[in-house]
Amino acid sequence: MRLSNELTRILRKARSVCVLTGAGISAESGVPTFRGAEGLWNKFRPEELANFEAFIHNPKLVWEWYTYRRKLIEDVMPNAGHIALARMETFFDDFTLVTQNVDDLHRRASSKNILELHGNIMRSYCIDCGKDEDHPDFSRQENIPRCKACGGLVRPGVVWFGEMLPQEVFQEAERSAQRCDLFLSIGTSAVVYPAASLPVTARQAGAYTVEVNIERTEQSRLFDETLLGKAGDILPAIADSLQLIKGVNV
Ligand code: BJW
Ligand code: ZN
Questions:
Q1: Rounded to the nearest whole angstrom, what is the distance from the C-alpha of residue 51 to the centroid of ligand 2?
Q2: Is the pTM of this model over 0.90?
Q3: From CA 24, how far away is CA 35, in angstroms rounded?
Q4: pLDDT by residue (tens digit) across 211-222?
Q5: Cα(157) to centroid(ligand 2), Å
Q6: How far is C-alpha 114 from the chain's CA centre?
Q7: Atom 63 in ligand 1: which residue has the minimum CA distance?
Q8: Which of 87, 121, 144, 200 could bridge across to 239 with cysteines, CB 3.0–4.6 Å?
Q9: What pLDDT digit, counting tens, does each position of 26-78 carry?
Q10: How far from the centroid of its chain's Cα atoms is residue 12's Cα?
Q11: In angstroms, rounded to a whole number, what is the distance separating the alpha carbons of residues 110 and 114?
Q12: Which among 21, 44, 37 is positioned nearest to 190, based on CA atoms?
C-alpha cells in the first residue's frame, strides 16, 4: 500500500501524534463491534444493558452480558493493527493513544500512553463506596457480586450512556487533540460523543486528520484523508513507512 505524498510529508515532520481508536480495530481479533451487520447492538439492546438504570433494574442480566464479553476478550489476542500502533509510538516523543475500547488489547499489544475514555471491562467497582473490586465474587445465591467492604452492588468499570467520561482522562485527550500535528481516527463509527468531537478539535487546531475504516462514516468529510481498508492492513503499512522515513532498523 502506497501512502499519499502529503501523509508521507506529515509523518516525516510530525512531532506530536494523537490516535483515536474504536471497536473496528479489535474486530480482526474477533471482538464484535457495536454497530453494523455483525454488531453487538443487533443482538442486544443498548437501552437494556448499557446504562445505569438497566443495571439497577436487572444487575444479573447486565453482569451476564459483561461476563460473556470478558471471557471472549480474555481468549483473543491483539492483532496487526494494535501492534502497528505500539510500533508507531516508538517513533515519537509525543504520542497519545485515545481509545473508546474497553478490551485492554492496546495495553496487551505494548502501547504505553493510553487514555481509556470508556473505562475497562476488566475493572469493576462498588456503586456505593467506589472501591475497586478486582475479582468480583459471583458465588452468592443471587449471582451478583457485592462489595467486600460495604455490601454495595459491584458494577462493571465501563462508561455507560448518560454517564460522564472520566474528566481528567477526557481533558488529557482534548489537550492531545489540540496540540497534535497528525490525528488518526481508526475503526470508529464516530457517532458517540464526546469521543466523536476529538477529530473536530484536532482539525480546528490545525492538525492533518486521517481516518482508517472499512467504510465511510458520518464524519468522513471532516478528514483530510479517509483510508478505506482494514486497520490490520493499513496500520502496518503506515508503521513500515515511518520506519523507512526515520531510517531506524528495529
Ligand atoms: C473497521 C474494521 C476493521 C470494522 N478495520 N475499521 C444526542 C445527540 C448527541 C449526543 C447524545 C445524544 N443523546 C445522548 C447523547 C450522549 C451520548 C451519545 O453520544 N449518544 C449518541 C449515540 C447519540 N453519549 C454519552 O452518553 C456519553 N456520556 C456523555 O455524553 O456524558 C455527558 C452526559 C451526562 C449525562 C447526560 C447526558 C450526557 C457516554 C458514552 C458511553 C459509550 N459507552 C459505550 C459502551 C461502553 C461499555 C461497553 O463496552 O459495554 O461505548 S457505547 C459503545 O459505542 C462503546 C463504544 O466505545 C462506543 C463507540 O463505538 P465504536 O467504537 O465507534 O464502535 P462501532 O461499532 O460503532 O463502530 C465500529 C467501526 O469500525 C465501524 O465504523 C466499522 O466500519 C469499523 N470497522 N471493522 C477498520 N477491520
Ligand atoms: Zn462498597
A1: 20
A2: yes
A3: 10
A4: 999 999 999 999
A5: 14
A6: 9
A7: 188
A8: 87
A9: 999 999 999 988 888 888 787 778 999 999 999 999 999 999 999 999 999 99
A10: 26
A11: 10
A12: 21
